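HUMAN: Quick job: go over this next protein and say how the chain folds.
***
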Amino acid sequence: MYLFAVAYSSNIGGTGVITGTGTNLAFQELIKNVDVSQDGKYLDINFTTWLALNVPIMLVNILVAFFYLTTVYFGLPNWLRFGKNRKTSAQLVKEAVNSRAVSTMLKEQYKNLGSMTFHEISVGILFILIVCLWFARDPGFISGWADSLGSVEAGDATAAMLVVFLLFAIPKDMTVFYKDMPVKNPGSLLEWKHVQKNLPWGAVLLLGGGFAISEGSQVSGLSLWIGEQMNSLKNLEPWVILLVVMVMTALVTEVTSNVATANILIPILISLSRSLNLHPLYLTIATAVTCSYAFMFPVATPPNAIVFAAGDLTIMDMVKTGTFLNFSCVLVFFFLNITYGNLIFNYGHYVYPDTGNGTETLLLIP
């Protein structure tokens, strides 16, 4: 159960911030091709607005996953059991003893960690710094630090590269600052040898390859052509289109890499949104997030693959446990997106720049 909890929490938790998963990063890169805000006319998607939309949805799905896993593996609480299904006093005593043993073991493991080192504290501070920089770059409700740079364009990568520079520049041992305690070559917080050995270069190539495929489909006109072929969906209510897209994405991403799925589908949905006159974020955000709602197969997401290998699990173990969460997470996001999401982005009143057929979109709250 705990291995599943780690995998599911990683998948769901990554949807909370725009830098949390590869699919979110793919969405962030691909949506740059769309002028969502139209020079401030509409609310744009950035680190802050993504947080505002997805953190509440993430928390709801985490709670659903928690109650689901505890019910499946531990059963219902005793106060919800009736008759013969109620646990005996001996069973309750045994559970209490096991719980105390686990608690004691965790406390011992925590004690063995010792106090935090200068190295650990420095990395923690830099982590908080980069989150603050991402949040304050363009918060939306006030001017961000990027506005003070004038014509210089600063994105989330600007803050990331600053912190990376500091990681390579700051020494990992604070004794280097004391003249009476010289340390010969203490090393930096992050060294290139460690990066070269441990950075998942395959993931970098996967992201880059996905962007190349997406760019190729847009430049060649493939995304636009596919979007036009799906014009028959215009007879459906927008919320029906959203549900169909989310279910389709959830099924496809189970058998393919979620990053690859996002890179292929999002450009198509951008074109489809334009042809159906829907808000450009209405379908694309849902698709990016749904790509992380993959719990049934190891190939779907990196956390699934890691847990599958570490836990000596079978495919059927993952399918039986993950099927419910696949659809419950999709439904939670669907209902909150058409209600709470509409309050943030006002999906129902988006007008594309006038190109001869720009009209006001339909109201998307069913």
Observations:
- DSSP finds 14 helices and no strands in the chain.
